[in-house]
Amino acid sequence: MSTLSNSAVPAVDVPAVDIRSVGRIFPGRKGASVTALDNVSLTVAPGEFVSLIGPSGCGKSTLLRLIADLDVPTSGNIRVFGKPARQARIDQDYGIAFQQAGLLPWRTVTGNIELPLELHGVDRPGRRARAAELIELVGLTEFAGSYPDQLSGGMQQRVAIARSLAERPSLLLMDEPFGALDEMTRERMQNELVRICAETAAAVVFVTHSIPEAVFLSNRVVVMSPRPGRIRRVVPVGLGAMRDRGEDLREDAGFFRSLSTVRDLLHGDDGPAIGAPRGVETR
Ligand SMILES: Nc1ncnc2c1ncn2[C@@H]1O[C@H](COP(=O)(O)OP(=O)(O)OP(=O)(O)O)[C@@H](O)[C@H]1O
Ligand SMILES: [Mg+2]
């Protein structure tokens, strides 16, 4: 099984992600530019679960794309497990599940999940076994041989999540991975993600619009503000270790306290609170 083991064991004290004074300005038409991120600094420890939340357009996806080296900062720098973001991408130190499922249409569910394992030279029986395990985890056993265009949006998203977990990465970068799921499936996937994180000690940077989802999953919730995208506040959640997080936590007093803190910050400088900022779910 050594080929399936974690190839990116972080050195002690090296952050999983280290973002220093990062800015990203997109040049616009006729000289009008958009400052998507301004002076953002954040450190994510190995095994830590950090959520990014904030109104639509505040730069959450941009920040995740910078960590994944799918884009480069205009200023500042980012290190992943002590390496430049580019090197971490080349070494495939993390799993990614983004807003768009990004599946290969000519590959089946199994084929898509096996892809990262194939790229890393895992043998066929090893790939099959791991894919089957993950397909069961995301509840798609009956669809293992189906192609992406035969699946609903939420099912495609579950395949993408399974694929991101295939190599048991030390870091997961997830951009609204549960956005397309129905509420029941969403809560089940949240519970599974908590279990997976407890088992694998993976660090996670997780973008969501849902305050309860951010609070339930995270060690810290990063509340962002838009134009220019900045970190408004980092809220430590303090609901205990991942392995102790169960369904009953959703009824816990500490859970509701953290919900209010995050909600208040999101209303923040947008004047008197009359409902949540656009694009943020308060349920
Ligand atoms: N490639 C790009 N070119 C120009 N502008 C961009 C580009 N990508 C993002 N932006 C701009 O940067 C800002 C932040 O976008 P981003 O996608 O990071 O927001 P977000 O917080 O993920 O929003 P949402 O919650 O809607 O997904 C937006 O104003 C957006 O228009
Ligand atoms: Mg986004």
UniProtKB/TrEMBL annotation:
The keyword Nucleotide-binding applies. Gene3D superfamilies: P-loop containing nucleotide triphosphate hydrolases. It holds the Pfam family ABC_tran. Keywords: ATP-binding, Nucleotide-binding, Transport. This is ABC transporter ATP-binding protein. GO terms for molecular function: ATP binding; ATP hydrolysis activity. Residues 17-251 form the ABC transporter domain. InterPro entries: AAA+_ATPase (IPR003593), ABC_transporter-like_ATP-bd (IPR003439), ABC_transporter-like_CS (IPR017871), ABC_transporter_ATP-bind (IPR050166), P-loop_NTPase (IPR027417). PANTHER family: ABC TRANSPORTER ATP-BINDING PROTEIN, TAURINE IMPORT ATP-BINDING PROTEIN-RELATED.
